[in-house]
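Reading group handout, session on sequence-to-structure problems. Before we discuss, look at one worked example. The prompt was deliberately terse, the way you'd type it at a terminal:

> structure Peptidase A2 domain-containing protein

The input record follows.
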Amino acid sequence: SGVCLNCLRKGHVAVQCESTNCKRCNKRHHTLLHREDIKTDAKQGPVSAFTTKSSSVSNVLLGTAVIRVMDNVGNLHDCRALLDSGSQASFVSTSCANRLNLPRTEAPTEVSGLAATGVAYASHSIVLCVTSRVYAGSQVNFDAFIVPKVTSDLPINHGTADGWSHTQGLKLADPEYYRPRGIDILIGANILNKVMKPAIIHGKDGTPSAQDTLFGWALYGPASVPTAPKVVSLINVTPLNDIDATLRKFWEIESIATKRVFTPEEEQFVAHFNQTTVRLDDGSYQVSLPFKNKEKALGESKQHALRRFYQVENRLNRNPHLKEQYVNFMHEYIQLGHMSLIPQSQLNINSDSSYYLPHHPVLKESSSTTKLRVVFDASSSTSTNVSLNDKLMVGPIVQNDLFTILVRWRYYLVPLCADIKMMYRNIWIHEDDWTFLRIFWREKATLPIQEYWLKTVTYGTSAAPSQAVLVLQDIAERYKVSHPLASEALQRDFYMDDCMTGANTVEEALELQQQLLAVLKLCNFTLRKWSSSVPAILEAVPEDFRETQLPLTLDQDGTVKTL
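And the output record:
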């Protein structure tokens, strides 16, 4: 078919290919085409944990810690965590996630063998904000997949608080390390580099070592407590899909996909979007909140939102650096007109016909631009136990799935990456719906608390993702004749606000880049954080439009985070 078996690209054959060989056997074929010498009836899939019993293994301590985790209103909960360098991801139990009540992100993932349950399915993840009981001011944030149960109680067998000489006087991460108890959170190798400290203390043979961590000294290794029988636990996450299914998926992505069938609510959502969305004079889009029915009464939400504001304010006052970022974020919100003071005449209207959103910070240290984002809690219940999100329809996501986008992106000879700056906040909300997007805010405690309403598509509302994606699809349809390359990319190469597209020549890639910039500018969107392995692509945009974490010239092994 004219496709090179070594790089899966067209235009040459394997013997002429300059790409690297198979990473498993070093032969001239792509790693995806490599077949292991295994039985054909063996089921291949992700492996994360297994346990086995033995009568000859001494009692072993795994590193555990009691950590403090912040919930959705800023309260701290003591949770027990397992520090596991053998796991490639972090996990949180469903019961712990429910206690924390943090915003959840869809993240469908198969996890095999966790807690000896065979194949578990994690449908969501949350961002955990963790602080230390031992070292004041220490904090780390990370994503964790929600699973029914992380692992069995640890340690496997009950021991005693042995007075090993080398651990005397240490501030232990888990003071009751010897007592079997549940594990709420597994902290994997993806975050351990931020948790572990260099200091390690080793004792005599048969005694555990002490590792200094962000949460205190964690004990791991053999313990001189006689027990029988023994259980060995191993936890490891390996996201390895079936090789045949992976290859089949690769060849199917260019075929015409079967049109997805919408649910009745999704059809109603799209119809509402088409009927109520308008273009403003400056080219911006304006949408309306998609209520499920005409009855919009929600109940009283003002007092609860006010209590939540005081809690967040107290948290900010304890952390000046966090407060500075938060204040700057909200100041920008006001300066750009994305929120404004509510007129005096609208302050004391019927509480049932309005809604107040609590808000809180979410940190993303990996971001090269916005480290902190303020998220608004539209799932906060009112006096009638109903939230704004309960009243809103949830629409379809009509973009391609992430795997399809990534594999097609790998096919391009000239790959491009970028993202839309403030995609949600550049889509306006109809003024009739502002009353359902009220918040409390003041920059410092000496000022009076003021009420604002949000005027753009808002993080935390269930309708926001679909509204934003449908706007991009509408842009693609409107400009498919005048900007055909941009139109095609908008339809199939965007995952939310992230663009992963490309071309097979530099000239075509530059034309695609210019079309995307132009067509999105017509709608008041800015495409920034450009990255590419081809310097000419970066040179075509101003420096402040480029990904700041990426050098202009990439070597063969250069990488950049795209999502």
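Points for discussion. First: Residues 521 and 527 are 8 Å apart (CA to CA). Second: The mean pLDDT is 82.
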